[in-house]
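Next up, sample data:
>
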Amino acid sequence: MLSLWPLLHLLREREHKSLPSILLCPQFTGFSLVNGSTACMGRVEMEVQGTWGTLCASRWDLLDAHVLCHHLGCGFAVSVPEGGHFGRGTGPVWSDSFHCEGTEASLDQCPVTALGASPCSHENDAAVICSGPPHNASLRLVGGGSRCDGRVEIFQRGTWGRVLDDQWDMEDASVVCRQLRCGEAEAAYTVPRAKRGTGPVGLRGVRCAGHEASLSLCNTSLPEATGIMEDVGAVCQGSRQVRLVDGAGRCAGRVEIYYRGQWGTVCDDAWDTADANVVCRQLSCGWAVEAAGSARFGEGSGHIWLDGVNCSGDETALWNCSAEAWGQHDCGHKEDAGVVCSEFMALRLENSDGCSGRLQVFYNGTWGSVGSNSMTPHTASLVCKELGCGDGGTREISIFYGRVNGTAWLDHVQCGESNSSFWQCPSDPWELQSYDDVRDEANITCNGK
């Protein structure tokens, strides 16, 4: 397989990222759940520049849904039903794809892309079922890397309060994780001084057998404590995450896993395409174009969580693959594994100065041109900003026929004033197609070259 290292090295040398953490444009002015039996479940609808429409479900996932539930005061996302579960909407179907980590306060803080999105019908409208607003004895975990790890708080008499204990253990943490639908408990801990809460105390002293359905069913009528009551925390299995780091985009980079509240890397021993495919699929990044080793994306730090990973390729998460026990390895960070996925996207202007020439995009492991049909003037400005080539540019238009033998990934790219990034612009779907007229190519010259 052709190595993508020259491309990735070039992108890392730039001071921009091919897919930055783009904040949602101000065109998104409202979100609601429609046609559910309560206000906290239903079809996802968004207001875009004054027009309400539905959201396409093709890239909608539980992390995105959790952010929306939290934003609407509806707790956390319990499930993401298949498209159309709450009936078909009317009006436009927005094809924007959110890429939330799950810890954002609202969808406004999640990166979003629209470039190359396929058409979507109301039969595939996104939906979510949220846990609902907090009620007496509801729990939440705060200050962690996900909704499933952190300091424990309980909702009492309309207020979130701290949970303090002097003998907090795995049985107690198991009940917390079960109540929050976060899987099995992986750790129970007292919170370090720097991360202790400062609000009111909601519960002081608790003893669980481990089988209770909620923390409020545990024994809270305890004799006077003999130890020091401290803030307590839990790490649940549902907190596990995977990410790709230092690869000029969210779909390429060094593989890192969040386990027991800490990020760590994966050793490249036996690392191959089957393993990389699991990571790409888990991140909704398509499939693996390259399985990289030898710290291709730089050396990580801290734990090396997995070694000897051996996936069949069908697993839903990397930690479901065969591997050495967590944290057991014979590697250094110079052996950190990496991945390039098919959904990794990059942008370039082909001339040697990098700020003028034929516009090309990298997708699915190959470079392809961008067609000039219906391209809006604002597109050139966004391309130049993306490449660090100034804040404006012009599209060079040839009026003469010239025969070429080219392939293009995209056409009809129509960036508007409301788009803050090239990747947010609407266009025809991704499709590699040939052309033979130089007038079909988009050529751009930036003002900052």
The first strand starts at residue 28 and ends at 35. The radius of gyration is 25 Å. Confidence is low (pLDDT under 50) at residues 14-26.
